[in-house]
Automatic annotation (TrEMBL):
GO MF annotation: an example: 3-oxoacyl-[acyl-carrier-protein] reductase (NADPH) activity
Record bears the keyword Transmembrane: no
CDD domains xref list: SDR_c
Keywords (A to Z) from UniProt: Oxidoreductase
Record Gene3D superfamilies: NAD(P)-binding Rossmann-like Domain
Protein name: 3-oxoacyl-[acyl-carrier protein] reductase
E.C. code: 1.1.1.100
Coiled coil: none
PROSITE patterns tied to this protein: ADH_SHORT (PS00061)
Length: 252
C-alpha cells in the first residue's frame, strides 16, 4: 500500500529535475500523475518510464489558455484533483543580474514563468479542487533565494521566488476552509538542468557546497520525500508552512 494510493496529482516542471523526481515518487506511492511541462519530449519519455499511472500534459505555464486546457483535461479524466505540485521555473543564469544592470525583459521572462506560471496553475488547479469539494494539497516550490542572501546577483529570480512564497501563505489562509492545504518547499542547491552551468564549474560547485553545512549539494531524490509527505494525509494538519530541505543552508 502506498501513502498516495488513489490520489490524482499534477506535477508542473515534471520533465526534469526536482519535478520529475517528485512525479516518480508520487507514482511509486500509488498516485496517478499528470506530468505537466512545456518540454513535450521530456514528459513523454517520463510517462513511458513511469508507466500507466503517469501521462503527459504538454503546457506552457505562461499561457493561460494552455494551462486552462491542461486542467480541463485533468477534470475530464478524473473529475477531481487531490495534489498540485508546482516546480516549473527558470533561472536565467548569465542574464539575471543586480537591479541596476537587469534588463527588464529578463525580469519579465523570469516572473512570467516563476510567479505568474504558479499563479495560473494554482488558479486552474484550485478550481478543479473546489469543484470536487474534496479539498486537496497544493505544494509550491520556493527557494532560499526568496528569503536569504544566497540569491545575491539573481534579483529577478529571488524576487519571483519570494512572490511564490507569499502566494503560498495567503492561499493557505483563504483555502483552509475548503480543506485545501497549501505549503511550500524550500530546496537547497540541487543538481539539475537549472543549476547545470553552476555545478559543472568546479570553483562555483565548491562555493555552493560550502554553503551547505551537510557537506554536499543535493539531488532530486533528496527532495522527493518532502513532496510525498505534503501530498499525503500524513501532513493533514500542515498548511501555510515552508519546509526547508536544504542541507542546512538556512542555518549556516
Ligand atoms: N535546482 C536547485 O538548486 C533549486 C534550488 C531551489 C529551488 N529550485 C526550484 O525547484 C524547482 C525545480 O527546479 P529544477 O532545478 O528541477 O529545474 P529544471 O530546469 O531541472 O526543471 C524545470 C522544468 O520546468 C519546465 N519549464 C520551464 N519553463 C516552463 C514553462 N513556461 N511551462 C512549462 N514548463 C516549464 C522545464 O521544461 C523543466 O522541465 C524550480 O521551481 C526551482 O526554482 C531549484
Amino acid at each position: 500500500m502506498g501513502s498516495l494510493d488513489g490520489k490524482i496529482a499534477v506535477v508542473t516542471g515534471a520533465g526534469s529535475g526536482i519535478g520529475r523526481g517528485a512525479a516518480r515518487a508520487f507514482v511509486a506511492e500509488g498516485a496517478t500523475v499528470g506530468l505537466l511541462d512545456r518540454n513535450a519530449a521530456a514528459i513523454e519519455e517520463a510517462a513511458h518510464q513511469l508507466g500507466q499511472r503517469a501521462y503527459p500534459l504538454v503546457c506552457d505555464v505562461t499561457d493561460e489558455a494552455s494551462v486552462a486546457s491542461a486542467f480541463a483535461t485533468v477534470r475530464e479524466r478524473h473529475g477531481r484533483l487531490d495534489v498540485l505540485a508546482t516546480y516549473a521555473a527558470v533561472q536565467l543564469v548569465g542574464e539575471d543580474a543586480p537591479v541596476h544592470e537587469l534588463d527588464s525583459e529578463v525580469w519579465t521572462r523570469t516572473h512570467d514563468v516563476n510567479l505568474r506560471g504558479v499563479f495560473l496553475c494554482c488558479k486552474h488547479g484550485v478550481r478543479v479542487m473546489l469543484a470536487s469539494g474534496d479539498g486537496g494539497s497544493v505544494i509550491n516550490c520556493g527557494s532560499p533565494t526568496g528569503l536569504t542572501m544566497c540569491g545575491a546577483g539573481w534579483h529577478a529570480y529571488a524576487a519571483s521566488k519570494a512572490g511564490v512564497m507569499a502566494l503560498t501563505r495567503v492561499m493557505a489562509a483563504d483555502y483552509a476552509r475548503h480543506k485545501i492545504r497549501v505549503n511550500g518547499i524550500v530546496p537547497g542547491t540541487i543538481e539539475t538542468t537549472l543549476t547545470r552551468t553552476l555545478v559543472d564549474d568546479p570553483e562555483i560547485r565548491a562555493q555552493l557546497t560550502a554553503l551547505h553545512p551537510i557537506g554536499r549539494i543535493g539531488t532530486p531524490e533528496d527532495m522527493a520525500g518532502i513532496a510525498v509527505f505534503l501530498a499525503s494525509d500524513a501532513s493533514k494538519f500542515a498548511t501555510g508552512a515552508h519546509f526547508h530541505v536544504d542541507g542546512g543552508i538556512s542555518v549556516r
